[in-house]
Every structure is written in C-alpha cells, then in structure tokens.
Amino acid sequence: MLKQIQDIIQSFWQFAKPAFDAPTAYSWQGLARLTLFSFIVAVICWVLGIDWVRDFSSTLGQVFLIFTVQWWGVHYNFKLIPWVTGALVSVLFFGNLTGTIPQAALITWPLFSGVIAVLPDFTDRNLELHSPKPEKRPSIVTLLSTQALISCWLQLLFVIQAWTEDYPALLSDDLDGNVVAIELETRSPQGVEFLNAIAVELETTLVPLSWSEVQKWMQPANREENLTGVVVSAADEQLTPLERALWDVEYQLLNQASGYRLQFTASWNGPQSSVGAPVHRKICQIREAFQAEDDFQTAVVDVECDRAQKLDIPPNSEPNQPVE
Question: Is 281 in contact with 287 (CB distance < 8 Å)?
Fold first, then answer.
C-alpha cells in the first residue's frame, strides 16, 4: 500500500515538475514553488496540531497562489485571469474568517476582478503608478461600472433570497409590473394558507367536544382566550417566527339564528411589493348536528368553513354586525 502511494506521488511529480521549473527566481514558477512549500508546511502543522503556524502558512500560501495565478495568466495572455484572481482574493479576504465562502465573497468578487483587470493600465513594469492613457479611460470606466452593477445585482439577489426565507408571504405577492423579480410559479396567498390553518385548528379543537362544551367554549368570558389559542397554534404551524409578529388576525361573531358564525380576517403588515396591506377573510359555521348510529341520533359538533378570499374593501365594511 505504501509503495502504491509513493508511485502515485512520483507520477504526479513527474507530471507537475515542468510547471515548477523556474527559469529565474523572478518568475511565476518561482512563486508556484513558494505556494507549494507553504501548503506543505500547513499540512505538516495540521498533522502536528500547531494551529497558529498552520493558519499562517495556509494564508501565506493563498497569497502566493494569487500572485502565481495572476502572473501565469498575464504570461500566457489569458483574458479571463482577472476574474480567476478576483475569486481567489475574495476567498482569501472573507473565506478565512468563517471557514466557508460567504455571500460577501461572491458580492465583492466582481469588484476585486474589475480592479485587478484595470490595474495594469495604472502601473508600469516597475509597478510605478501613472495615469491611464486617454484612449483607455472609457473602457476602464465601462468595465468598473459593469462590475459594480453585477455586485449590486448579486447583493439584491441575496437580499430577496433572505426576505423570501424570512417572509414566505412574499412568494405569493403580486409581481405585475415589477422590473426586479418575476413570478416563476403560482402560489396561494399566505393569508389564505394561514386562514386555512386556523380553520383546521378550529375544527380539530371543537369537533371532539359536546355541544354544551362548545357553548361554554364560546361564552364571552372564554371566547377571547380560546380563539387566541387557536390562532397562535395555527401560526406556530404555518408561519415563520419573523412572520408571526407581522400578521394581525381579528375575529367577529356574526348574527345567526342557531349555532355560531365566526369571521376571521388576517392582515399582513410586513414587506410587500405594493402599497396597502392585503386582507383575507374566512367565515366558519359552527352548529350542532345529529348523526345516525344504530337507530339513534347522536349529537355532534359540525364545523364548516368557506373558501378564504382576499378582500378589496376594508373588513369593517362587512354588512353583518358582530355580536358583542
């Protein structure tokens, strides 16, 4: 097994050796040797458990790698090398701090790449600064502007992604006329889903009870606490923690000859694409019913709810008056 590992290492070295043959110390091959040496030291320190030397050698190796890649790209006139080098610089600045590649690395990648791409126009072979040639200035401005625009779009992408994770209600928002985001799939409004969850929780709570227990449950002294518990349970199941504080749910007990008629209205007060908080309504009928079992009529509780709908008018304009 050890001999096989040695053969693999030797075969790799025979393949990679020409790339590390430096004609002079001042060459990209010389930097490549320093890069390899730094990473070898980092691996040895990792095995020995010397953390600070490992971190230092690893960071130094990344710096050497950045200069090696850039020098190699310039030597072979590889046009996309600034963006490769920019990616390495972003990972060096932000990846080392977290151990992963964070959003900041992706956002700053075009900016670093743009600066690296135009840097030769501001320096000579001796790395002395000078003003760029007049004919180069428009292309420099264009390149830096486009890279800044790409960074802004990436930032906007991550912001929208974070919003949709924290506030799923945005996924069902109306995006007509929006020039930033497009609707890829149709989803039920979050207010409808929330009210449906309330209806399921209400039915789950009341159906096992007897009608006398439901009447006690709906008495003014108990109704507020009981319905609040139903809404909270539905919110815990349906909404994210950040969304729960942004939904206002109200209920009204409407006039009815027998049983109870509950109207729930849910208003969204979080971020949205248009002015005006969307309001959704759902009405549930609660009444005593009788079910035939073995020639006997058994009293049961029946809960029926209509389809939730979005209101185009304020819920206070409902013609039915609540029972206080």
Answer: no
CA distance 32 to 72: 10
What is the total count of domains within the chain? 2
Sign (positive/negative) of CA torsion 87, 92, 94, 96?
positive
Residue 220 and residue 147 share a domain: no
Mark whether 96 and 216 lie in a shared domain. no
In whole angstroms, what is the distance from residue 210 CA to residue 6 CA? 80
Q: Are residues 231 and 133 in the same domain?
A: no
**149 with 194, same domain?**
no
Check: CB of residue 175 under 8 Å from CB of residue 182. Answer: yes
Q: What digits encode the pLDDT tens for the residues 37-61? A: 888 888 888 888 888 877 788 888 8
For the ranges 121-130, 153-162, 226-235, the lowest mean pLDDT is seen at 121-130
Domain region containing 46: 28-166
Q: Which residues contact 234 (CB under 8 A, 6 or more apart)?
A: 194, 197, 198, 200, 201
Cα–Cα nearest to 288, from 280, 296, 297, 278: 297
pTM for the whole thing?
A: 0.60
Query: Do residue 51 and residue 150 come from a single domain?
Result: yes
DSSP letters, 239-253, are: S-HHHHTTEEEEEEE
Tally Cβ neighbours within 10 Å of residue 32: 22
Do residues 199 and 291 both lie within one domain? yes
